[in-house]
Batch of 3 targets.
Target 1
Amino acid sequence: MRKLIAVFTLLFTFVSSSWAQQQPNVGCLDKVIKLQAEDLKETFMKQDMVVYRDAMMGMESQTPFPVAVQLMKGQLYQFIFVGSKESSKITMELFDGDDKKLEQRTSAATSSNPNGNYIIYSFIPDKTDLYLIVLTQKLKNKTMCGSFTIMQKGQAKAQIGDTSTSKQKQVISTPQKKSTNRGTGAPSQPSYSPRYMQQKTR
C-alpha cells in the first residue's frame, strides 16, 4: 500500500523560471544563497538541463525539511541544495517510495566549494516513484534560508514548460507516517517512516 501523503500541507511554490524574472515569494529571502544557487543552475543549463523544481525554503537548525517529488525511471536529475555559509553541517538524504535510504550526502569544503555550503548530487532512478529528499542544516539554534533545485534534461521542456518564458507553480506536501491498518475498520498505530519527521535531529 502506498504511503499516505499530504495530511498536513506546506504550500511552497516551485517556480521554473530564472531569478531575474521572478520575485522570491517562498519561505525566506537570502540574496547570497539565491545568487549562488542561480550560478550553479546556470552551469547545468549550459549542459542542456532545465529546472524541474525550485524553491527558497525557511529552515530551522537541525530540523529535517522533507520534499516529496515524483521522479521518472531512467531520467537524469541534478539535485542542488544550497545552505547558509554559516551552517556547520548541511545534509541531504534520498529515500525511495518504500522509505529505503538510497543516498546520504554531507557538504564539505573543497576547492570548488570553499565554504562547504552546498551539495550537488546526480541521480538516475531505477523506477518511477514518489521519492523523498530530506534536507537539514545545523546552525546553533537559529533559523536560516536554503535553496533546493531539481534539474533534468532539456527534452522535458515540452512537458513542464520552457523555463525562459513560463512559471510552473507546484505544491509540495509534508509526507506523513504510513498507516498499517489492514481493513479492520479501526485506526492503527502508524509505524516509523522518514516521511514523518517533526523532531530535530540529534
Target 2
Amino acid sequence: MDLRAVYLWGAVAFIALSVYAAVFLERPRIAYIARVYAALITIRSGLMVLTPMHIPEEALPLSGSALYDGAGRLFTVRHDLFFSLHTALPFLGFLAFRTDWVRWSCLAFSIVLGTTVLLGRNHYSLDVAAAYFITYAVYRLEARFLEARFLSRR
C-alpha cells in the first residue's frame, strides 16, 4: 500500500507534538526526556550495526517525495531497519511524557506509524514488534539508572 504520506508526515507531526509537549508542557522534565530519547537512539545505532538487514524488495521508495528529499535524507541511513523508530519514538513518548492527552496521542502515533511501516513494507514485522520491547527495556533501565544515581547522592 502506498502510505508514504502517512510515513513521512506522521513522523513530522509526532516530532512537532513531542517538541511542543517537552518545551511548553513538561519543561521541568525536558532534560530527562532528552536523555531517555538519546539512550534509545544510541541503543538503536548499536543494534543497526549488529543487525545489517536490507530493506524488503517490495518497499516503496521514499526518494521523489519533497519532504524526504529535502530533510528526510539527513535523518536516515541506508538499511536502517532494526528496530523501527517510527514505532519506538512515539511509544517512548507514551512512556516518558506525563500529560495525559500527549501520552495517549503518542500511543496512537506509535500504533498508526507501526501499522504504516508494515503495510508499506518499509520494515519487517520483527522490526516493529522489537521496537515495543526494546523501547520499554530502555525506558525501565534508564529509570533505574537515574534512581540509583540520585539515591547514591543522599
Target 3
Amino acid sequence: MPTIAEVLTVTERLWPASGAESWDAPGLVTGDPAATVTRVLLTVDAVSGTINEAVDGAFDLVLAHHPLLLRGVTSVAEDRYKGALVARLIRAGCGLLTAHTNADVVPDGVSDVLASRLGLVDAGPIVPGTDSGSGLGRVGRLREPTTLGDLARALADLLPPTATGVRVGGDYARPITTIALCGGAGDAFLGESAVRAADVYITSDLRHHPASEALEQSLVAGGPALIDISHWAAEWLWLDVAAEQLRSALSDVEFVVSDLRTDPWDFVVVQ
C-alpha cells in the first residue's frame, strides 16, 4: 500500500509548497511518512468534529485545507484544544496534512473551482503567480449576462447551506457580466484593478469598513457590487476536485470528502 510519503509526493505535484504565501504553513503536521495509507479524509477544517470523524472511521490521514498549527502555537498540551486534537490523531495513528494557499493559487485550485462552477469563461487570476495560469483569486465573464439578484440566488443553490447564507451589497437588478472572486477571505483584493473593473466581487469574511468603503468608492469612481459567502462553503467545493485528482494518482487509496459543516455559525435571528 502507498505510504504517507507517497501521498506527499502527489500533493507536492498538485499543490507545490513553493506556491504558498510566506506566512502560510502547509504540509505534514502529524504522522509517520513511512506509515501506510488506505483511507484519507478531506475536509476544510481540522476541528473536533472532523478529527472525530477521521478517528472513528479508521482513516489513516486527514487532508485539511486550513492549517491547524499556523502561527503563535507554543504548546500542544492536551488541556488546550489544538493539543488535544494533535494527541487524538497521534494516538489513533492518523496523520494530518494541510494544503492551504498552495492549493488556492493553482489551476483547479479553490478559486478556479468556484469560477468553473459559476460557468466563467476566460478566467484568470486577480493577482498573477509565477507560473502560467496560477495566482490568487479569479476574474472572468459569464457567457450570458445575469442580474446581481439572480447571481446571488444561483450561488445559494450552488453552495452547501449555511446559517449566514449569501449577503449582497448592490442593486438587485444590476446587470452582471464580469465576475471577480476569491475563495476564502479576500477583502485584501478590494483595491486590485481586476476587482475594481468587475461588475461584482464574490468573496468571504468581508469586514464592515472595507466593504462600506469599497461600495462608497463605487458611487464616485465605479466599482463592483459585493457578495459575501461562507468561507467554509466556498472552499468546500474544491474538495471533490482535489479528491478526484488524488484518486487518479493513487488508485489503491480511498479518498472521502467530509460532509460535516464546519462553518462556525449555527443560526441567525432575522430582525
